[in-house]
Design a protein that fits this description.
single chain; Purple Acid Phosphatase, chain A, domain 2; globular; 5-stranded mixed sheet
Length: about 170
């Protein structure tokens, strides 16, 4: 699968709360909708599983979504493999599988890289970059919790947290 950086979307607000979700595999739990009811934007890091998941999330907030390795069909083919966003002065890169990042790709300017695929929630800072995987919001697998994430951006400050869903 080739990795292409899509044209950046610039969101004017320097302050916002972002819901982060991945690996729904066609299952959108009511707990997710409740947790995201006050977010300004939702990032879905792939393995959506069903286009209705996107439709339901869009009823809460605008959604930026990338294709995962389990997303098939004409609806999924229209999804980008990766997406670059700028919110205020914060640059974010969204991709399903971190292994899809081409080693020659220049990602040094990103403050946040959001991934999915592993179903393992992760917040890790490396080389001034936050690597954020919200885990799986769909089916529980490999002993990992069912989880989502939230990113808060306020006046250039970044706060990331994982939210384990009680199912």
């Amino acid at each position: 699968m080739s990795t292409e950086i899509q044209k950046s979307d610039y969101i004017e607000s320097g302050s916002c709360t972002i819901g982060v979700i991945s690996d729904t595999h066609g299952l959108l739990r009511p707990e997710v909708m409740n947790a995201f009811k006050c977010v300004d934007l939702i990032l879905h890091a792939g393995d959506v599983g069903d286009p209705e998941v996107i439709d339901h999330l869009e009823s809460v907030a605008p959604v930026v979504v990338v294709r995962g390795n389990m997303d098939y069909g004409s609806w999924a083919e229209q999804l980008p493999v990766s997406k670059s966003l700028v919110i205020g002065k914060t640059r974010l890169f969204l991709i399903h599988d971190i292994e899809w990042i081409d080693r020659q790709m220049e990602l040094n300017g990103y403050q946040v890289i959001v991934t999915g695929h592993t179903h393992r929630p992760l917040i890790e800072n490396k080389h001034k970059t936050l690597y954020f995987n919200p885990g799986s919001a769909g089916y529980q697998r490999q002993g990992h919790p069912v989880s989502i994430g939230k990113l808060s951006l306020c006046n250039g400050k970044l706060d990331a947290r994982l939210v384990e869903l009680c199912i």
